Amino acid sequence: MLRSRELMNYIFVTGGVISGLGKGTTAAALGRLLVARGFRVTAIKIDPYLNIDAGTMNPFEHGEVFVMDDGGEVDLDLGTYERFLDVNLSREHNITTGKIYQAVISKERDGVYLGKTVQIIPHITNEIKMRIVATAESSGADIAIVELGGTVGDIESMPFLEAVRQLSMEMGGRNGHRQCLFMHTTLVPEVGSVGEQKTKPTQHSVRELRAIGIDPDLIIARAEREIDPDIKRKISLFCNVPVEAVVSAPNLPSIYGLPMLLEEQHVAEYVLRKLDMAAGRPEMGSWQEFYQKLQHPKYFVDVAIVGKYTELADAYISHIEAFHHVGAATECRVNTRFIESEDIEKRGADKLLSESDAILVPGGFGSRGIEGKIGAAGYAREKNKPYLGVCLGFQCAVIEYARNVLGMENANSTEFDPDTPHPVIDLLPEQRGVSEKGGTMRLGAHKVILEPGSKTATLYAATSIYERHRHRFEINPELISDLTSKDLRFAGKSEDGRRMETAELLTNDYFIGSQFHPEFKSRPARPSPLHLGLIRAALKQKYGVM
Ligand code: GLN
Fold this sequence. Notes:
- The protein is an alpha/beta fold.
- It contains 19 helices and 25 strands.
- The site of glutamine has 10 residues, from strand 21.
């Protein structure tokens, strides 16, 4: 394979018409096709909000907070990029307006601008450009996908659009080719009883983009169904791109089918031609196999996800994706069902959970619905239903066990009841005195030592692992001997042995909790071992297989 390596190459991704079109997923799918051709691809997500990072944002509004190895709390699109590109990114790959302004203001205070008036252009735009280039170049990639969150025309995204416009002009190219290209994702709505596809919103959003000085090279037309060839031609004519650069992106049963859909339309070939990068045929074998398995399951398992952000599936997206990865590995369609934990408090676990084959209680904060989560753990323990508790779900399982098996009446976490007589979950010592909320939890990848022969060690096929964390509370080290006096084992511990990282119940088929979040590192080819174990246990109970 031939590679033009002398220059970094950029694909800037913008969105038009409305947000939520899945431009991150489409860009990640294109990235997959480039990876499949042997290129090293990285991704940067720009979020034009003023928060420094996603860590302080409510999942109810913005979906899950994704956690990186380095502890960065970032937008969930970075999770999509990690899964599609199979890379581990860092906090620098999520650029926000908050980070940019913070840096510029602190430089101003330090006198870096030498008496100049500090302005959006050039100081803010320069900071944006510098960060994009520095992050892309330090990643060692050949191609950087840079996605601008929001929609063209939003006031907040203006400085970013201006910065990437400048970058594209300033960057050289080779052999008459540019070093970067622009991919614009728009909506093609259908109206009327015959579902006529309308191009006007696309025309308007491209016009808006061109008014800023950006000419799209590639238009991804999102629609309910395939884009009609006539409509493609119309978009090509009105938006000044060749027909081959108008990509039909209909709704798919699974996002994992997107790379194949783009490949059929020769999108990667077009992109590489534009960038003057030569490549052979893609190696899509394992991805295709993964997708085929997902589409043709032999078994069906229903998992109840008991949480409090259940109206927004994006709040638990890494868990849902982990179950897709597990589904392909086990030839099983994992149907995830959201159960509001407060409903369990009102109607009882039996009513809401008896139909499910397995139960997941994911992470969370605050006391709303906490008794419902504890109730779900108790139901799983008593009925021998496969249970996975992650972070808060792990803590809830230990609280339930302390109360109902060990007789520690009113045991609780001091997060929910500071005066509990049995504080089985307590604040991490280093958290005492911490009052700032942003970026102050125990975050990111930490080493976990697993006891040889334990269920967890068997699932990981390892006794030393790195998993990602995001928490302030932990198992109270002073109560460990009480908690392990019967059939509960803390098989996973931090390297110094002080922190309890996993728990397993010896008597149940599958009852496991982890203080860390295994969902963040789950990949199509390497599903999270704890999610895999949960589904295997459910399959064994339901079908007698595995
Ligand atoms: N609220 C709990 C803590 O801070 C659990 C956090 C989580 O589930 N991510 O420890």
